[in-house]
């Protein structure tokens, strides 16, 4: 494949990047640090880093929204994207353009030389370069995988947030939550404030914080939150907020995430003062596609591990949703058996779809692995075919649940856009 240039289409750049590296994931900072140094990165722009298994995207987004509401020029880097790659890099609330991304990729390629980079590493360097070139005042960085060896960790953050930790990517991060937590805690920086917001905290994060001399605040120990009718209170050791608006994203887990974000913002008030009005504005305006998102009679959720599906089931239970038509597509390395067992009580009919790519789980294998929980499932070659059938079955009065992967939800969102357009 011919190397693209700054005049090439973004799709050509992304396809070329995927073809370069022998494997899609290769943890380690050596290669990306070498290229970053040639680009003059990381820059002096202060950063906040978010790691964890679930809730990273909403926390990173909320942090960006709060500081933007407080009057700062903010860069936000998240992954993966849902519909467009541009969603990964947001400056002052706007996803960057195709042209900006192609310019950033060209800048990387001008200095990369012999160093091999993964698809994710290209994106991380592009984000950091664009944030510097755009003159952002603060950058919010979501860790892609783990923490200690993730490309985002080449940046020394002023504050860190670790969200709920579950069993995901065990081949890369370790067999149990304690081992995974130690990898996540690799983002901690000596003397810099950190917050850990997990309903079931691991000992490893606390141990790593002690080893690094990190002042760690933990949900339930150093700060709490309380729900009050249609509002909530946040209570810390030195300050409290009363009757805050509920986060724009639904679910009790979003309150835990928001409580952690507020704890970090409070720890950093001396560096970057944030008025209460900015917090209220950001909370009520928080949006993130694919997080228990409702479009008509279809519910979309990118849950793709056991812990995330348990949270999804909490949502379904709270709304008393049952007899759903399930459209499910998953990646091969995900816990199909646990996830489908959790979903089964809410499902009347299940439509299984194959996903593309080397990691995509083909329909026959998905049916085999989910048979104990979803014995009467029907198979379709693609998500689009499964969702088209789901709409026929739903008629005018039944509801559809789409979940299992970002790829699954993205396909259905695209279909809905065409139908609504």
Explained architecture:
The chain is of the alpha/beta class and 421 residues long. Helix content is 40%, strand content 17%. It is built from 15 helices and 17 strands. The protein has helices at 10-20, 30-38, 56-69, 98-112, 119-133, 170-173, 177-184, 203-212, 252-267, 276-285, 306-318, 336-343, 363-370, 383-394, 406-420, and strands at 47-51, 74-77, 89-91, 94-95, 138-142, 159-162, 194-196, 216-218, 223-228, 231-236, 240-245, 293-295, 298-300, 324-328, 347-353, 378-380, 400-403. The strands form 3 sheets. It has an 8-stranded mixed sheet with strand order 4-3-2-5-1-6-7-8, with helices on both faces. α3 (56-69) packs across α9 (252-267), α3 packs across α10 (276-285) and α4 crosses α5 (119-133). The chain is globular and about 55 Å long. The two termini are 35 Å apart. The mean pLDDT is 93.
